[in-house]
Write the structure tokens for this entry.
Amino acid sequence: MEEFDLLVLGGGPAGYLGAERAAQGGLKTAVFEERALGGVCLNEGCIPSKTLLYCAKTYSHALHGEAFGIRAENLSIDHGAVIRRKVKVVKMLVSGVAAKMKALGVEVVAARAAITGKTADGFTVVAGGVTYAGKYLLVATGSAPVIPPIPGLGEGLERGFVMTNREILDLAKQPEHLAVIGGGVIGLEMASYFNAIGTKVTVIELLDKIAGQTEDEASAMLQTIYTKRGVDFRLGCRVTEVGDHAVAYEKDGQAGHAECDAVLLSAGRRAVTQGVGLETIGVYTDRGAIVTDDKMRTNIPHVWAAGDVNGRSMLAHTAYREAEVAVNDMLGKADAMRYDAIPSVIYTDPEAAGVGETVETARAKGLSVYAKKLSMRHSGRFLAETDRQDGLCKLVFEEGTDRLIGAHLVGSYASEIILSAGTMINTRWPLDSLKKIVFAHPTVGEIIREGLFEGQSPHL
Ligand code: NAI
């Protein structure tokens, strides 16, 4: 039996970063991964989708470049070449993670692992027929797509007519008409890519808005922009059947359908807690996710859970920080997880990004708040780099203290700019101190500074 200080189940962002920090902290560590190091984020999520989206953005900026003096003839995008580039980028990053594990002396076990029980001073895990003993466990088994019980969906997935994020990022042939079930983050990013490269896209969404938790005006702006570009949004629609070359749905008692030659299923994700052996040691789960406290501890001493598996905020950057908190706790260093300043980004073109409270979420918590709203056209750089486009910056402040508690953006670089607002929320600095921060000029990010000085909007 091989003995370790820490056994990490899952080699995604929470798992590999947790293993990295643990090894740096002097713990003898093993990480188990049945597919590929890097998990969903590096292999079939964040990184591959951003590779595709950047290609699409480059193409569409050239295609619509007249206002910028760009005239291109016979411009085309080769979807196959885009996918080949994505494979290269993913390979590079995954091998980078593997190299880091090796350099730090982390043992990487390429097998599915399951917890099998407790020992006198720890736990046992079996992987690839070998038993490993560890004093501590970090469960980082991630998440998988939700497969709703819709007739024809399972069969469609088997035939390849229906895809999840995994298969669509490897799709060799560009579909003519893609139907997207679920207008959340994955649905919108893929709708954005396929719309840009010339596929007809229909998004079928259960709710009356797209982009899930995104601030209402930001989500409405995205919907307007993509509707103008030809994406067909069918909102408030419940999918009833996936048939041959069509998705059927029902809206207010009326039946409808979208014809298509491919379907993307992006109806949410669920924590992976089955087959992990959690029940053998009594780890508590709630609605399928591991319950954790702010130190990422589970109910079982010396067992932590980080990343999507605890279902708290299914984002890679949350996973990184949760893994750090868990390892710090193992090492006896004071640390705690905060969820109030976690940015979320949708990498459409333009991007949408938000952090902290919206007016609605704050009011639901009983807070008195006010918001300031600006058009991105206040930014010189935004005007220089866009043509007849608008964008949004909405900042949410606490009444009385004037503390910034939320920021919501639509526009170029929103994914990068949101860090400044997130930092402001994280530090809890008063407005007077925030106003003294010098931003580089000209940047689109200056819109945040502008928002700090603007008067309170009478409309909100
Ligand atoms: P999501 O939760 O963002 O969106 C799912 C959408 O599907 C919701 O709007 C929901 O109302 C809708 N829906 C559910 N069942 C439906 C049905 N039967 N018919 C029609 N619509 C239905 O989930 P998504 O897009 O699958 O993404 C999964 C996770 O991955 C999310 O937690 C997301 O945060 C993360 N992710 C993050 C990215 C980023 O940070 N840029 C990129 C992609 C994914």
